[in-house]
Amino acid sequence: MKKSLCIIALLLAAACTKVSEPAPCGPLPSERQLQWHQLERYVFIHFTTNTFTDLEWGYGDESEQIFNPTACDPRQWADIVSRAGFKGIVLTAKHHDGFCLWDTQYTDHNIMNSPYGRDLVKQVSDACKEYGLKFGVYLSPWDRNRADYGTSAYIDYYRKQLTELTTRYGDIFEVWFDGANGGTGWYGGADERRTIDNLTYYDWPATWEIVRRNQPGAVMFSDGGPDCRWVGNEAGFAGETNWSILRKAEFAPGHGDGYALNHGQEDGTDWLPAEVDVSIRPGWFYHEREDDRVKSVEQLMDIYYKSIGRNGNLILNVPPDRRGLIHPTDSANLIGFGKAIEAEFAENLAQKADFKASDVRGHSRRFAASRVAGEGYWATDDDVTTATLTASFRKPVRVSKVVLQEHIALGQRVQRFSIEAKIDGQWKTLDEQTTIGYKRIIRFDPVTTDAIRVNILASKACIALDNVGIY
Ligand code: FUL
To answer: What is the pLDDT of residue 345?
Structure first.
């Protein structure tokens, strides 16, 4: 019998018999982390008094009177975000300056005392519901408005704020804990001398507990998680090697090794995937002087491949202007970005391919298009940690990208892989890389090819791939 027939027979047999699942490998994602991975991209909104003072870090002594957007419309934000194909919005409910964008009972330094006079957290969360978006909040631990910042009274205040935010506005998908604080040598606000030890001051586990209790589905972001980690830069890229696991005990908000944040750690103890935060403009807040420095669709696509394409989620900041609207350039580029992603991944050639694997544990025959078909995944036998998967085409196709996704519910396994194309009867290596994780996108100069081969060259345990896409 020919080899291909042999494999088909094997596949059929496997489809008919119940095959055991591979054993989990290393730390595993929680259900909330699995859901979060699937979001892939969402928008950050930075908006506070800084928008009106032209600052990036307000001092905390700004008058509430300066917060006066003349045409503020969170529905415009949500409309643009959803049209661009992004899945949610994370709003800076309070940035380092301490001004609160919601109707809080714990400080007068809030939006209800501004000329705007409306609860913006409520408006944004409502707009998200209307447009089918997830909603999240950023609550700066550092607060330059509070004279008690640095004492235990402030921790109590901070936790009360977090309680308000996590109980009043419906479901929250992510809470963002920024690591920046006055201890980094940037002074201002109510007390210019205080220095904070990030590691000892906040007692994070007790604070995180509030989120767990009130929003069990929410992931929490910081340099050290507990659910997703900072990627170690704000330029928009994850490491080419990017493990979703980390030795968590070595990290805390505002504390951790930059290289490890960017690459993860192969011997990580916990599932702690990377989130890539970057702004569409040079700054996080709107400044008119940056109107001609909005990232182009081309730049945003490069970020896409270096974040989502390298096993990270992307949180792209799009700051409203002084009117409280997303500026036309930002809007056009964000929507253009969404369209470019759609166009580049419009046709998955894997669906037309005939797949053969060098080893099969047992799966649906349609595993290659499993994401599309919504079933099965390809796994190898327990002792098989190297394997090849070949996609052959009846007629030559033009290919410039391969998408790989591991079955991460059972852990991150692959340590090294390569992609080859069969061109004029010869196999040519297009790329060789390390990790895959939730999603890895390999792009290369377009080739016209009869077949694409994925070689898994090293893996911590048997291979389990959810999806192979060819574009
Ligand atoms: C940083 C902050 O200091 C910036 O202002 C911004 O909020 C960014 C997302 O995180 O650490």
So the answer is: 97
- CA 363 to CA 378: how far, in whole Å? 6
Share of the chain above pLDDT 70, in %: 90
Give the span between the Cα atoms of 415 and 436, in whole angstroms.
Answer: 8
The alpha carbon of 280 and the centre of ligand 1 are apart by a number of angstroms equal to 14
Q: Are residues 14 and 92 in the same domain?
A: no
8 A C-beta contact, residue 136 and residue 91: yes
In this structure, the answer to whether residues 87 and 230 fall within a common structural domain is yes
- How many angstroms is it from 393 CA to the middle of ligand 1? 48
The token pair that represents 113 in the structure block: 């005392």
pLDDT tens digits, 333-351: 999 999 999 999 999 999 8
Q: What is the spatial distance between Cα 388 and Cα 386, in angstroms, rounded to a whole number?
A: 7
Q: Report which DSSP code applies to 182.
A: G
Provide the pairing of β-strand 378-379 with 414-423: unpaired
Task: Please indicate, yes or no, whether residues 286 and 367 belong to a single structural domain of this protein.
Answer: no
Ligand 1 binding pocket includes 330 (Cβ within 6 Å): no
- The SS3 call for residue 370 is helix
pTM score of the predicted model = 0.94
Summarised one tens digit per residue, pLDDT across range 440-467 is: 999 999 999 999 999 999 999 999 999 9
Q: Are 230 and 220 in contact (CB under 8 A)?
A: no
Q: Distance, CA 361 to ligand 1 centroid (Å)?
A: 46
Query: Is cis: bond before 446, omega within 30 of 0?
Result: no
Considering 294, 315, 344, which residue would you say is the last residue of a domain? 344
Report residue 186's pLDDT band, with 50, 70 and 90 as the boundaries. very low
Residue 157 falls inside a structural domain: yes
Continuous segment of H or E residues that includes residue 53: helix 50-53
Domain housing 430: 6-26+348-470
pLDDT at 255: 86
DSSP string, 1-50: --HHHHHHHHHHHHHHSPPPPPPP-SS---HHHHHHHHH-EEEEE--STH
Cβ-Cβ contacts under 8 Å for 5 (sequence gap 6 or more): none
- Ligand 1 test: best mutation among 222, 276, 284, most atoms within 8 Å of CB? 284
The answer on 377 and 292 residing in a single domain is: no
pLDDT at 54 (0 to 100):
97
Residue 362 is predicted with a pLDDT of 60
Residue 95, token pair as written in the block: 């940035």
Verify that 339 and 383 share a domain, yes or no: no
